[in-house]
Each structure stands twice: as C-alpha cells, then as structure tokens.
Amino acid sequence: MAVFKILLINGLVIGAIYGLIALGYSLVYRASGLMSFVQGDMVTIGAYLGITFYRVLGLPFAISFILTFACAFGIGMLLERGVIRVLLSRNVIPIYIVLATIAIQYIIQNTAQAFYGSVTQRFPAIFSKPTLTILGVTAQTEAYFCLLISVILMILLHFFMTKTKFGTAMRGSAMDAMAAESVGINTSLSTGVTWGLSAGIASLAGMLLGPMYGVYTTLGATIGRKGFAGAVVGGYGNMYGAMVGGLLLGLVETFISGYWSGTYKNMVAYIILLLFLLIKPTGIFNESAIQDV
Amino acid sequence: MADIVKDEILAQEETDKAIAKEAELQAAGGKAEDDKAHPVVLETRGVTIQFGGLTAVDHASIKVRKGLITALIGPNGAGKTTLFNAVSGVYIPTSGEVLLNGEHLEGKRGFQINEAGISRTYQVINLFRSMTVLENVMVGMHTRLKSNFWSDLFNSKKKREEDAEAREKAFEWLKFVGLDEYANSPAGSLSYGKQRLLEIVRGLASDPQVILLDEPAAGMNSTEKLELDALLKQILNMGYTILIVEHDMKLIMNISDYIYVLYHGALLAEGTPEEIQANPDVIAAYLGGEDDVI
Q1: pLDDT value at position B17?
Q2: Are B55 and B25 part of one and the same domain?
Q3: Do B149 and A185 lie within an 8 Å CB cutoff?
Q4: Helices of type H across A164-281
Q5: HSE-up of residue B112 (Cα within 13 Å, Cβ side)
Q6: What is the pLDDT of residues A108-155, one digit of tens each?
Q7: What residue in B sits closest to A292 (Cα-Cα)?
Q8: Cβ of B114 and A291 within 8 Å?
Q9: Shortest CA gap B39–chain A (Å)
Q10: Which of A73, A166, A182, A186 to mutate against chain B (most B CBs within 10 Å)?
Q11: How far is CA A192 from the centre of its chain?
Q12: Given A55, A66, B27, B162, which is the most exposed site by the fewest CB atoms within 10 A?
C-alpha cells in the first residue's frame, strides 16, 4: 500500500506535467490546425530561464515564475508571428510547417547547449524542507508543489477560456475564424495569444520539473513527446482531454516502472498511444461528442 | 375628452400635411426626400477586385440607404459575394472605396469593420458550432461589452452585471426569432434553417449600422422562406439597414426597396423592383443560359 501511494503521487506529478504540455498542443492545434514540435522545448527553455532568474540572478521564486512565463509567452507569440503565420500565408502544406518547427526545436536545443553546456544543470530547491508527508505519503516537497501549481494552472486556464471575453474570443477564433472576424474578434491576435499561452504553460512545467529532474538540453523534447501522446490519448484538440490524457499516461508509466520495470515504461506508454490511434483515434473525450475548446 | 379629440384631429392634420409634402417631393424627383429620410449609410465607389488576371468585380458603385433593404442580385458568378467580401474585409479591394458614414473601410480587417458597424452572415453558415445557441449571440455582442481582461478574471461585480444583462439581451434576440427553446443546445445541432436565423441574430446582436445577408434563404424550405420574409421586414421595422444578396427572386422582389444587378462583375442595372423586373438588359442577362429566371 505504501508503495502504491508513493507511485500514485509520482504518477500524478509527472502526469500533471504531461497534462500541462498536452494542453498547449491541443490549444495550438485548435487555433492553427498544426502540431508544433517546439512545444516540448518550451519546457527546456522554461527550465533554463528559471535557472537564470532563480539561481543566477537570485530573484524570488514567484518573480522568476512570472518572468519565465512572460518570456516564454513572448517566444511563443514570436514563433507564431515570425514563422508559422508567414508559412501559412504562403499556403505551404502543413507538414512543411511541422518540419519548420522541428528545425526550430534543434536550433533551440543547440542554443541552450551553447549557453549552459551539455551537463545537467542543478535547479536549486524551492523549499527549505526537502520532504513533505501528506496522508502518510512522504515525497519531495517540490513534487507536491508541482501537483498543486499544475492543478491551479489548469483551473485558471479553464476559467480563462470559458469565463473571460478574451478566452471566449480565442475559442471562437479556433472554432470558426470567419465567423469570429465577422463578430469583431481579432483572430490574428487570438491565434498569437494561443501560441504564447501554450508556450508559457510549457515553460512553467519546465520550472516545476527542474528541481526534481535537473535541467538538460533534451529535457523538454522527451517529455514533450509524452505530452503530445497524452493530448492524443485524451482527444486531440480538447483541452480537458489533454489534462486527463496526460494524467493517465503519467500514472500508467509510473506504475509500470514501480511494479514491473522502468526500462519498459516508455514502451508501454507508446503502445497505449498506438492502441488509441488504432482503436479510438477520437481519444477519451470523444471529440465530436463533447463540447471542445 | 374634448382635448383628446382635438389633439387627434391636429395629429391627423399633421400627418396629412406630411403625406402631401412627401407626394410633392416624390413628384420633384424623390431624391431629396430619400436623402433626408433614408440617408446613405454604406457606399462603395468604383470598387474593383482582381484575382491575378481575373476581374471579379469591376468598378461597382452602390449605395445602401438607412432603414431600407438594398439588394444585390445577378447570375451565379456575377461577383455579388466577392463585393460583399470586399465590404466586410475578407478581401481588400484592388481599387475603389468603401465608406460607412463617410469613414473609409477599404483595407481594414474584418473585425475592425465589424467594430465600425457592419455585421454579416455567410452563404455557407459560419457559426461557433460547439458553443451553445445563446453563447453564439453573446459572442456577437462581445465587441460592445466594456469589461476587460482583469475584471473578467476576477469576476468583478460590474462584469457579472454586464454578463447578466448581455445574457438577457441575447435571450431576447433568441425569442425574437423563436430560438429561445434551443438556447442551451450546441449551435451545430440546429436545423439548417434555424442556423441561418441564429447567424442573423448573432449579427444583429452587435447592433450594426448595416447588416449584410449573403443568401439567407439558401437551403430554406418554402415555409421557412415565408418566415424569413416576415422576419426581414420586422428587422427593418426595428430601424436596421439591410444589404442582401439572394437568388430567390420572389423574396427579393417582395422585400427590396432598391436593387442593384451585377453581371460579370459590373453593374448592369439599378432601380426599384418594378424597374428591375421591366429592364430588358436584366431579363436578357438572366435568360442568357442561367438557371435563375425572374
């Protein structure tokens, strides 16, 4: 039972991270009909920005957190404005745009390597108390913190998308750009903000992961792929599906490592992805059946 | 009692005088009266739209007068929708001007043109399909709401009040077209004819100066068409101004105050429904191999 509880917490923590990244994939897909490989690397960028603000510059964690989000938001918007939109406006077939995002992914990874080197960087602890015991489960304090912040971010995003005028405008633009423009929604701004938000959320995932995993240049690429798988499992393009899919994937792979072997956790995770693609490509949140975002 | 009767007589006299004056003006050409009672709201001046070497719209100049239904007709491919798209900001005119109350609209983006006061519906329905029917109308009001990002996020009292008001107004619009019972259903689940009605009230919800309707009767059955006919007249009575593209000639001749005929992108004729129906050029254009017959 004790093992189960620990695995459960660990699974939820990594699952929440996958969920945050998956959210970004789904938002971007809804807004632009594309998948961006850079999404995963925003995790890396977020972690490095976190190190820069928190460790190098010595700013308080909360400030570093906000600054990281702001920077990543800007990078995401810049990516959309400077690359994606330019290619879309030239009517390039989508696979070329996806390829462009792969190119940017490697540019980011190598740039990060140039700045921070190829060794794993230490992300300092956020709390002075290394472990925390909740309901008899002892885990790294940062793990509980990660879970808490992830849940808060998901709730905030839900409120933003459904209750605010801007969130509604973003949903509207994603659903039907023509209709959105004709009711006075600036679809170009909405799309830009969607990319910014996706990047921002991923960067925060990176900051939450940093203290637990350490930071290296391919951190985001690996985890990003899992996030993508989570988005597909949940129902690609569905915000809530992304959260559930991410959590599910995190739990499954953690339990596999715990009860079977860590060597096979990726294999099992991707077998699940393949099964979903073959048997239920609409994901858990059957896209056409549920109100999507 | 006597006073009321006297007042009524006086009012009657006033009306009679007004009618007499109107008749006088009509006789004098009608234009001066038109400008006063129905000033030009929306105007295109020599709008030309080219795609590569193809001229889709060729120097089209039309005037849309306040409180009237102005129609744009013409055989398939005449450039009606293209001209619509140039007015609503989907296309930027190659040359020419689009003016709303004297303000230049050409080159502006679609959302800016909506903010300036032009709503539109599409030939192929564009709704927020997975939002509810009510939400669709509320989104139509968005640009007119004052709440901002922060008041939204913190759900301030002002925001909640504004929301409640918008919700109520949106509901009124739904009642107006008889969609109130579907308020909470996804817009995509409505029948085709009802989706059209929803698109129209979503457009009206932003309280536009002019609403552009692109083939609103397309795909409607004859009962729905009759209802649309009545609805458009009601909308007009509420003080709105309509520019309509439509293939259904019976509907057009019945509701329009003024008609422009486009043929191969250029203006072929303009006038009242009677004038258009009697115009030999128009008849020839329509009989020249097209399936639409006046």
Answers
A1: 59
A2: no
A3: no
A4: 165-175, 177-182, 187-213, 219-234, 239-259, 265-279
A5: 11
A6: 999 989 988 888 888 888 888 888 888 888 888 999 999 999 999 999
A7: B130
A8: no
A9: 24
A10: A182
A11: 17
A12: B27
Distances (CA, A) of A84 to A32, A78, A283: 9, 9, 27
Chain position carrying tokens 């939109």 = A85
What are B96-141's pLDDT values in tens digits? 999 999 999 998 999 999 999 999 999 888 999 889 999 999 988 8
Find where tokens 């539109």 sit. Answer: B120
pLDDT digits (tens, 9 = 90+) for B17-53: 555 555 554 544 445 556 778 899 999 999 999 998 8
The chain-wide mean pLDDT, for chain A, equals: 89
Is A182's CB within 8 Å of B88's CB? yes
Q: Is residue B54 part of a domain?
A: yes
Q: Are both B20 and B51 inside the same structural domain?
A: no
Do A183 and B139 make contact, defined as CB atoms within 8 angstroms?
A: yes
Helix A94-116, helix A38-50: angle, nearest 10: 20
How far is the C-alpha of B160 from the C-alpha of B138, rounded, in Å?
14
**Residue A26: CATH number of its domain:** 1.10.3470
Between CA A143 and CA A152, with CA A147 as vertex, the angle to 5 degrees is: 145
Give the per-residue pLDDT at B28.
Answer: 45
AA identity, residue A95:
I
Over range A213-237, report the average pLDDT: 90
CA distance B80 to chain A (A): 18
User: Which amino acid makes up residue B173?
Assistant: W
> Does residue A164 belong to the interface with chain B, where contact is any CB pair within 8 Å?
yes
CATH number, domain containing residue B90: 3.40.50.300
- Among residues A49, A50, A46, the alpha carbon closest in space to that of A61 is found at A50
Tell me the per-residue pLDDT of A270-287, one tens digit each, with 9 for 90 and over.
998 899 888 888 888 865
Q: Of A205-214, B7-16, B25-34, B58-67, give the lowest mean pLDDT range.
A: B25-34
Enclosing domain of residue A259: 2-279
Phi (first) and psi of residue B55, to 5 degrees: -95, 110
φ, ψ of residue B51 to 5 degrees: the values are: -115, 105
pTM of the model as a whole = 0.82
With respect to residue A32, please indicate whether it lies within any of the assigned structural domains.
Answer: yes
Higher-pLDDT residue of A55, B152: A55
Q: Residue B213: beta bridge partners?
A: B244
Q: What single letter denotes the amino acid at residue B80?
A: K
Pairing type for strands B69-73 and B242-245 reads: parallel
